[in-house]
Amino acid sequence: MSAPETQAPRRGDVVLSAHNIAKSYGSIHALKGVNFDIRYGQVTTLFGENGAGKSTLMKILSGVVQPTSGEIVLDGEGVNFTSSTDARDHGISIIHQELSLAPNLSVRDNVFMGREIPGATGVDFAEEERQVRLLLEELEEDIDPLTPVEDLRLGQQQIVEIARALSIDSRILIMDEPTSALSAAEVEVLFKVIRDLTAKGVSIVYISHHLEEALEITDHAVVLRDGTMTAYAPRADIDLEWIVRNMVGEHYDLGSPPSGYAFGETALSVVDLTVADPNAGFNLVDRLSLDVKAGEIVCIYGLMGAGRTELLETLAGRLKPKSGRIFLEGEEISSLSIADRIACGLALVPEDRQRDGLVQTMSVGENMSLASIMNFTRGLFTSRRIEQSLIADTIRKVTVKTSGGSAPIGSLSGGNQQKVVIGKMLATDPTVLLLDEPSRGIDIGAKAEVFKLLAERARTGLAVVFSTSEVSECLSVAHRIIVMHKGRISAEFDSSVTKEKIMAASGESVAA
Amino acid sequence: MNQAIAPKAETAKVDKVGGMSIGQLLLEGRAFFALIIIIAVFSYLSPNYFTVANFLIMASHVAIYGILAIGMLLVILNGGIDLSVGSILALCGVVAGALMQGVELSPFGVILYPPVWAVVVLTCVFGAFVGAINGILVAWFRVPAFVATLGVMYVARGIALLQTNGLTYNNLSGRPELGNTGFDWLGFNRLAGVPISVIVLTVIALLAGLMLARSAFGRWLYASGGNERAADLSGVPVKRVKITVYTLSGILSAIAGLVLSSQLTSAGPTAGSTYELTAIAAVVVGGAALTGGRGTVRGTMLGAFVIGFLSDGLVIIGVSSYWQTVFTGSVIVLAVLMNTIQYGSRARKS
User: Do residues A207 and A175 lie in contact, with contact meaning Cβ atoms separated by under 8 Å?
Assistant: First the structure.
């Protein structure tokens, strides 16, 4: 790696700087020598796509994980955080992307979890409650400190998470996607709090997928891509286009929409589909209608919480819609079970591979044949011969790199595991294949292979719908790009659209 | 960086291809080696241990636990647990006992004496019914398996006590003029010198093994136990699988109840208490994971024989029954420890 000093220009007021930070998980390099400065009383924003290494870098700065190599310098001295408590003692606190609250405890107990104020008889609950009230007042949020966190809606829980970080009086505050569940008004309040904090000399590290929102608050921008820092600039020198260009890069090709053939009949038809949030009054998917033809590839782009996963899981039969109808090749399938929908030719490759896609206790081959087991059951028993040929066939078709069908599924890399899940669903011989974030957590090479595979199958008449939160993937093999925002289709483009247009359509501004 | 890692990966591959190390071999086949050691040690300590007659007697003892353990294995593979098997065993024994005493149909003023085959079938159907209650509670009403089967364990035991008023049916042999003799066949007869109970166990084990290894249902069971959400999204009917395993466990408990009352020629409401724990122990010693998705009939059978041969061996050499409990407990803890090592190392590899 090159010298650290040359990449990140320094000013006199650097509070913390990270030099050549690298982090590997086994053979996966999450960070490859990143340099990064945090400045006194200013906001530094980290930009980057999913898997670029933002969260890993923040976890290292807050002591949650230890870097494989590299050095953190705080106030000119090298430090080595062994735990998040250690980092907290140095004045660094973090608001995690995933909420880390105990849902059964009250707001007060969550805010002071692990740092209870000692009183005469155990914990001084009155003092804790007073401080929490002050914090919530500052955040302009009307929550009783004694409410159990599980009774709050997601946005309020995020406020509690923020309140907890603020209660620590830290010098450096890391905010990893603090606004993902907040309303526009709540974001405004948060920004006001951030400005107050920076005025008091607190340094903020900010991460957000809402690029425009982040631009409003930040003083410096750092862009990460594939574990390396690709760009650094102060706010005055940058705009949205600069960020997107540096985030996405232009150096790799995810393919182009397959052409030279005509689409077939409408394969999947969704009419006025509405899915309600089981815990709240609003709709996750709101009267959405969509038609997909045989041979067509449709990409659904949207931010977290746009309703992409809910839409796809409802189509597959995991979630029950509130209203609306689903047709597969003209036949209504709205009331069928998951198994029946698979039998009819509708298959879903779920978003979370580990949780929903794979059975970790089974081998590669058993995972691949799981969904199509009835196709090789003769009488009471499965036919080993047919199963083996099916597995060998699938391994070849989806190009899984494995020592064989009997290898444990855990021995495969993320990209190859994803191909196993896709192969499993393709083995059911679907007419419509839904893929929820098929590229999540896999490297670019595997990504390109997955998209190539989808393009090949589309040529043979498969209708493909895939979702993504990375704008560069919209412009790969998709014939049509649909942008979802708050459960609705906010825009629809053909494959000639630009990244900037897609991003703009996904944000708050379009919906308003 | 890449260069440093490459040779490591290669050596790891070579190790795998070159076969398992001795440690791994011992770990994978631990129940088998434990059984060999137990047989060797007791044969050395007692001249009566290593005889065909003794092995057959011990095997017929193992049969009861073994049949229960197969049902338990199915439930544990699904990621559940069935605490009610001992109680269902007793209740089914009592039901069979009552049927053998004759069923009085008061409106007609007649007493029906069903033939033994009908008693067997009715008892199995009853066991299936109680098992299905477990399954429905767990699958449809989402009661945790531990709690649902704990409740059924109490209720079944209570009904068995109510049915007999706490007493035991002693007359199970039937009468020739009523045409319902032959109940003791299950417990006492032999085919080619092998006790019927051992044959029953063998047949059930073979059928269960075949079902797990070769049928779609077996694959569904492993999948839903390993990752229920993934199985569900792959079109596995996870609820049906769940209800089926508890029902099968109920049927197997009924069969064990029939064999036990036949061996004892009596059916008591207190039979089979704590048998559920022995069955769980056999499954665990056999290498199955209590978290579900891992385990085989072969392992469970070895586990049942390890526990059965160990406790019978201790009786034969005259060790106090208090010590037997200590030994059995130690074997179970040791087995779970080994499971943790085995599955833990796999998890790290992935």
Answer: yes
Q: Do residues B117 and B186 lie in contact, with contact meaning Cβ atoms separated by under 8 Å?
A: no
ipTM, two decimals: 0.82
Residue A497 phi/psi, 5-degree rounding, is -70, 160
The DSSP-derived string for B26-66 is: HHHTHHHHHHHHHHHHHHHH-TTTSSHHHHHHHHHHHHHHH
Confidence band, pLDDT 50/70/90 cuts, at residue A2: very low
Q: To which residue do tokens 């086994």 refer?
A: A26
A346 within 8 A of A357, measured Cβ to Cβ: no
What is the helix (H) or strand (E) element at residue B21, kind and residue range? Answer: none
Instruction: Report the amino acid identity of residue B45.
Output: L
Q: With CB atoms and an 8 Å threshold, state whether A359 touches B223.
A: yes
Q: Which two tokens stand for residue B216?
A: 């779609």
Separation of alpha carbons B66 and B303, rounded Å? 9
Dump the DSSP string for A88-112. HHTTEEEE-SS----TTSBHHHHHT
Residue B281 · residue B90 · CB < 8 Å: no
What's the mean pLDDT in A485-489?
Answer: 88
Q: Contact at 8 Å (CB) between B266 and B170?
A: yes
A9 phi/psi in degrees, rounded to 5: -65, 140
Chain A nearest CA to B144, separation (Å): 19
- Alpha carbon distance A507, A215 (integer Å): 13
Place of tokens 């064999």: B259
Alpha helices by DSSP H, listed for A427-466, are 444-459
Interface test with A, best of B232, B233, B239 (most A CBs within 10 A): B233
Residue A463, beta-bridge partner list: A432
Binary contact (A355, B215; C-beta < 8 A): no
CA–CA gap between residue B249 and residue A76 (Å, rounded) = 67
Give me B209's structure tokens: 């093994």
3-state secondary structure of A441: coil
Q: Is-contact B51 B265, C-beta < 8 A?
A: no
Task: Please report which confidence band the pLDDT of residue A249 belongs to, taking 50, 70 and 90 as the band edges.
Answer: low
By the 8 A CB rule, do A22 and A70 touch?
A: yes
Strands of the sheet containing A28-39, edge to edge, are: A28-39, A14-25, A69-74, A77-79
Rounded-to-5 percentages of helix, strand, coil across chain B:
75, 5, 20
CA distance A286 to A275: 7
- Determine the residue of chain B that is closest to A374 in CA distance: B216
CA A4 – CA B13 distance, rounded (Å)? 37
Q: Residue A510, Cα to own-chain centre: how many angstroms? A: 21
Q: A64-84: buried (b, 16+ CB within 10 Å) or exposed (e) per residue?
A: bbebeebebebeeeeeebeeb
Q: pLDDT tens for residues A267-299?
A: 999 999 999 887 667 888 989 999 999 999 999
What is the pTM (predicted TM-score) of this model? 0.79
Buried b (16+ CB within 10 A) or exposed e, A275-298: bbbeeeeebbbbebebebbbbbbb
Nearest chain A residue to B289, by CA: A361
Neighbouring CB atoms inside 10 A of A492's CB total 13
Choose among B49, B68, B232, B205: nearest CA to B139: B232
Contact A357 B230 (CB under 8 A): yes
Q: Does B6 touch chain A (CB under 8 A)?
A: no
